[in-house]
Every structure is written in C-alpha cells, then in structure tokens.
C-alpha cells in the first residue's frame, strides 16, 4: 500500500506576511519610501515582525548561546503563551538594544557591555 504524503493547505502556503493596509492609507501610496532619516528619539524602534525579509545577515553563536536562545524561546511559549521563532526573538532583542542606545546613549546597556563594564 502506497503512503500518502501530507501537503500543506492553501491557507498555509498563501498566508499573508505583511500587515493589511489601513483604510487611511490610499492604495497608490508607495509602500517603501526608500532610505529614511534616523527616527527621532521619542519614536520607539520596532522590529519588523512577520514580514518577508529581503536582507540576510549570518551570525555565528556558540553552542551555549544557541541553547540559551532556544530555552528562552521555549520558556516564552510555555510560561507566557508567546510562540516565536529564533529569528523573531533575535530581531526583537536587537530592536530593544538599538532603542536603548538611541535613548540612553553612553548609558545604554549595549554600550556598557561592549566596553566591558557589565
């Protein structure tokens, strides 16, 4: 008897990867305005979330760091009901670090860590 392969449904294949356009935005408005000026300090930095990402950056981590990321991801799912993949978790962490750098400057946690102060 031949085994049947289970294929993903059409909903899985064609799920939206971007936020739906709001009614206030006209459909003819450009979606990508090009390079933007740095955001003002009062505008919170937001990660990209679940969208199609056009750029790729490879980051090498140790086995212990990868294990920490996986444990954090699983802890968020088990204890807080938040299911995220590793990429989204890393993008969120980078957004937090960059926002902290923008608002606190020399007192930011990322700068202190990179300078060996903590």
UniProtKB/TrEMBL annotation:
Biased-composition ranges for Low complexity?
16-26
Q: Where does the record place the region Disordered? A: 1-55
Top-rank taxon, per record: Bacteria
Which residues fall in a compositionally biased region of kind Pro residues? 27-38
Name of this chain's protein: Cobyrinic acid a,c-diamide synthase
């Amino acid at each position: 008897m031949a085994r049947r392969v289970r294929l993903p449904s059409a909903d899985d294949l064609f799920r939206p990867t971007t936020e739906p356009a709001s009614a206030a935005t006209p459909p003819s408005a450009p979606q990508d305005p090009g390079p933007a000026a740095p955001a003002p300090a009062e505008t919170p930095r937001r990660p990209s979330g679940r969208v199609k990402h056009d750029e790729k950056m490879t980051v090498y981590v140790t086995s212990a760091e990868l294990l920490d990321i996986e444990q954090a991801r699983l802890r968020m799912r088990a204890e807080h009901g938040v299911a995220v993949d590793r990429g989204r978790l890393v993008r969120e962490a980078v957004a937090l670090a960059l926002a902290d750098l923008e608002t606190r400057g020399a007192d930011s946690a990322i700068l202190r860590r990179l300078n060996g102060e903590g």
